[in-house]
Write a structure and sequence with these properties.
The protein has about 160 residues and is mainly beta. About 10% of the residues lie in helices and about 35% in strands. It has a single domain, classed as predicted glycosyltransferase like domains (Thrombin, subunit H), CATH 2.40.10.220. It is globular and about 40 Å long.
Amino acid sequence: MAREHRRQVVSTKGKANRLYPRIFFSAEDGIVASFSPPGNENEQERLVARVMDVSEGGMGLTFNKKENGKVHKGDRLIVVKVEGESSLEKIGGTEVEVKWVMDHALLEHTAGFGCQFMNTDEGLRDLLREFVNLRLLEQEGQISSEGLLDFSDLL
């Protein structure tokens, strides 16, 4: 029997360091983002990472250390594309700043980082807010996943 993968969402209640609610994805959801340094279109130098969470303000990601280069706090990157969730495809082309990196020696193959969306227009912020809010309602059982919209055509 196939295991159902459920997105998890946490609210901002009681979390002083969270500006926005976020939704979490499992690795099995298969949502992947690719990044490049600003002005560098070389596909061989792209960082490919699995999206683990998203909010109106940014994303949390993990990546394979052996297949990708290093990421450092303060790095500026461009989201080249997001695959696996059509409502997030509009993030492509957005500049992000790396806010934290988790790259411990005990984590042999995987590292993680969090990034903040930079210079996003109101339309993209609205799209992200609605995406997360609808997933929150789904998680709480207030709507079914069949009632969710695909936001990819709104921008």
